[in-house]
């Protein structure tokens, strides 16, 4: 079942269950998918495109949570957390920091990188290898830490 179909089904279920958090999140996902389809030249959306859309939405929620925490807005933090939980449920299983570190170490060993100057060799390979399984910021932080 494609993401669009699953979202439509989950949207109906959230409406019936009167689950406002799930309803907001599924509407946001559906909106982002429709926006992508109307902006793109292709009518078909690939699985990779779907993952990128979901990651972008999750990143937006995480950033909003940080801002609301700094502003002591617990009510808005709760709303964003509910939406983030629903959005991440559609993403592929995310790697833990230890798993990312292990795989990045392998890439560093393969590319024979040994300083921060070699970060340009490591990052493209790391992003390509697990872009759908980890956040780019997390990958970048781990690469920096291992190379320094």
Can you lay out the helices and strands and say which pair or pack?
Elements: H1 3-17, H2 20-39, H3 47-70, H4 74-90, H5 97-111, H6 119-130, H7 136-147
Helix pairs in contact: 1-2, 2-3, 2-4, 3-4, 5-6, 5-7, 6-7
User: Which parts are unreliable, with pLDDT below 50 for 5 consecutive residues or more?
Assistant: none
Number of DSSP helices? 7
CATH topology of the largest domain: Hypothetical Protein Yqey, Chain: A, domain1
Tell me the strand percentage band: under 5%
**Main sheet makeup:** none
Question: Over the alpha carbons, how many angstroms does the gyration radius reach?
Answer: 18 Å
Q: What is the mean pLDDT?
A: 87
CATH architecture of the largest domain: Orthogonal Bundle
The number of distinct β-strands equals 0
- The CATH superfamily of the largest domain bears the name Uncharacterised protein YqeY/AIM41, N-terminal domain
The H/E string reads: HHHHHHH
Helix content: over 70%
What overall geometry do the principal axes of the alpha carbons give? globular
The first-level CATH class of the largest domain is given as Mainly Alpha
Structural class: mainly alpha
Number of domains: 2
Taking the alpha carbons of the first and last residues, their distance comes to 44 Å
């Amino acid at each position: 079942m494609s993401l669009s179909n699953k979202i439509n089904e989950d949207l109906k279920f959230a409406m019936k269950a009167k689950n406002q958090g799930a309803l907001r999140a599924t509407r946001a996902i559906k909106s982002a998918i429709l926006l992508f389809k109307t902006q793109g030249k292709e009518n078909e959306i690939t699985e990779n495109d779907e993952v990128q859309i979901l990651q972008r939405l999750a990143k937006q929620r995480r950033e909003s949570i940080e801002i609301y925490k700094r502003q002591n807005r617990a009510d808005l933090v709760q709303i964003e957390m509910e939406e983030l939980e629903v959005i991440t449920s559609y993403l592929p299983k995310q790697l833990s920091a230890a798993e990312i570190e292990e795989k990045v170490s392998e890439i560093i060993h393969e590319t024979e990188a040994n300083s921060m100057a070699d970060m340009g060799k490591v990052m493209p390979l790391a992003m390509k290898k697990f872009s759908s399984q980890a956040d780019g910021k997390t990958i970048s932080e781990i690469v920096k830490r291992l190379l320094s």
